[in-house]
């Protein structure tokens, strides 16, 4: 909104058309920025400031009016909490917090309904389709992990383009009105090779991964110095969609260095991270992976009373009692029960996608169990992004139990059937190892 510079300020010159100021939309922060006309007198700036304060107050009252109206219509509190979207929140001074046994966002009650989508496992052209399907199912938040090994495949060489354009993915989530929870690692697990740590770390024969070993922290510091400035402006407090960041992943089951998690916490805070920090562990590793003043969360496949007791004891030490944020793969009955208890939750995965190239890792439950190319993971969308019967079931659960308004997304993605491909020439992977340092000219 631009306006001509006024000839001179008057006591009544506080209308929008008379302000010596422009409200400019910032693509980076997805919000409005204030810009003054050159040479604007101080008194005129003060009058304009008072007008903008009234405008901000009006926007805040509008968002609160939406909540109040929903309550007056007889909707349960969990319904109202799930309705809170980025476009509804104008006050960005106070981010995600725990009050009593519930979350608040912008000082308003908030229920996290999240699903995980890995941008690096879904072709970029299909990101928006997956995000819209997430929203249409009733979710208000997308969770994604940041793979260090893909962003820095060689020491000091960083990549954030194409299918690794993290900023574009975050911006797209904001565009479709979804919040974002970012898992920045440095170790993210996620069934990736070396849990998302770059393999070049192992060139150091003295390397101690996921510890405060100087070789490891030097590499992490360099990585965070490159990554964090890119995402810092997308935090909730900066008018962005990021409401929380997860540190590491299930460190309680590793737990080789008691100073390590505190180091990661300080590494993020010192680089300007303001949003809520979280840890994530299984029930068995919850207490070992917990970090003071950081919100503890659970990776769960089943609900056990003892696990909740451990979680409660961890939260008490951080002046937070409950408000569980659970990564779960559970039956529909469990989800219904959690919604009735106003538990926030995340589906891992909502859309699994594909392990392209050699990014897939392996598990060792007594024997080697490598990841296959498909990362279907029993997600609510198929590997290629199609609807599953479970998607439709949970969509119906969320609408009455969480009060999600009906939103339809038509799938217009083209699909094709490819003929079988027979390899005429091939070589064993083991036979290529002697050439791994050779330079290939294609």
Automatic annotation (TrEMBL):
<feature type="domain" description="Glycoside hydrolase 35 catalytic">
    <location>
        <begin position="103"/>
        <end position="397"/>
    </location>
</feature>
<comment type="similarity">
    <text>Belongs to the glycosyl hydrolase 35 family.</text>
</comment>
<dbReference type="GO" id="GO:0004553">
    <property type="term" value="F:hydrolase activity, hydrolyzing O-glycosyl compounds"/>
</dbReference>
<protein>
    <submittedName>
        <fullName>Beta-galactosidase-1-like protein 3</fullName>
    </submittedName>
</protein>
<dbReference type="InterPro" id="IPR017853">
    <property type="entry name" value="GH"/>
</dbReference>
<dbReference type="InterPro" id="IPR031330">
    <property type="entry name" value="Gly_Hdrlase_35_cat"/>
</dbReference>
<dbReference type="GO" id="GO:0005975">
    <property type="term" value="P:carbohydrate metabolic process"/>
</dbReference>
<dbReference type="Pfam" id="PF01301">
    <property type="entry name" value="Glyco_hydro_35"/>
</dbReference>
<dbReference type="InterPro" id="IPR001944">
    <property type="entry name" value="Glycoside_Hdrlase_35"/>
</dbReference>
């Amino acid at each position: 909104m631009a306006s001509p510079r006024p000839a001179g300020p008057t006591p009544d010159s506080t209308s929008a058309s008379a302000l010596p100021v422009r409200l400019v939309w910032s693509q980076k922060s997805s919000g409005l920025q204030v810009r003054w006309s050159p040479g604007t007198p101080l008194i005129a700036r003060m009058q304009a400031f008072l007008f903008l304060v009234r405008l901000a107050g009006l926007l805040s009252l509008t968002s609160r009016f939406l909540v109040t109206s929903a309550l007056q219509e007889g909707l349960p509190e969990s319904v109202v909490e799930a309705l809170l979207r980025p476009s509804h929140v104008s006050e960005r001074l106070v981010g995600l917090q725990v009050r009593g046994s519930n979350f608040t966002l912008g000082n308003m009650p908030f229920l996290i309904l999240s699903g995980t989508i890995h941008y690096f496992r879904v072709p970029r052209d299909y990101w928006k389709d997956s995000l819209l399907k997430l929203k249409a199912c009733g979710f208000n938040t997308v969770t994604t992990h940041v793979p260090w090994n893909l962003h820095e495949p060689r020491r000091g060489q960083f990549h954030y383009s194409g299918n690794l354009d993290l900023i574009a993915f975050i911006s797209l989530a904001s565009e479709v009105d979804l919040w974002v929870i970012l898992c920045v690692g440095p170790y993210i697990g996620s069934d990736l090779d070396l849990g998302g740590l770059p393999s070049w770390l192992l060139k150091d024969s003295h390397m101690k991964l996921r510890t405060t070993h100087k070789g490891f922290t030097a590499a992490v510091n360099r990585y965070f110095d490159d990554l964090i400035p890119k995402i810092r402006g997308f935090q909730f407090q900066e008018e962005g969609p990021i409401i929380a960041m997860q540190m590491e992943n299930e460190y309680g089951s590793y737990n080789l260095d008691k100073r390590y998690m505190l180091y990661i916490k300080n590494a993020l805070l010192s680089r300007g991270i303001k949003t809520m920090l979280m840890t994530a562990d299984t029930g068995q590793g919850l207490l070992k992976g917990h970090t003071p003043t950081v919100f503890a969360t659970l990776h769960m496949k089943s609900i056990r009373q003892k696990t909740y007791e451990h979680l409660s004891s961890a939260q008490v030490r951080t002046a937070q009692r409950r408000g569980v944020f659970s990564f779960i793969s559970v039956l529909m009955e469990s989800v219904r029960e959690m919604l009735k208890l106003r538990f926030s939750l995340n589906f891992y995965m909502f859309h699994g996608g594909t392990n392209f190239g050699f990014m897939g890792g392996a598990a060792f439950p007594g024997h080697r169990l490598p990841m296959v190319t498909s990362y279907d993971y029993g997600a609510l969308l198929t590997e290629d992004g199609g609807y599953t019967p479970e998607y439709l079931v949970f969509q119906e659960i969320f609408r009455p139990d969480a009060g999600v308004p009906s939103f339809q997304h038509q799938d217009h993605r083209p699909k094709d059937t490819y003929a079988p491909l027979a390899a005429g020439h091939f070589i064993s992977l083991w036979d290529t190892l002697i050439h791994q340092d050779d330079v290939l000219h294609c």
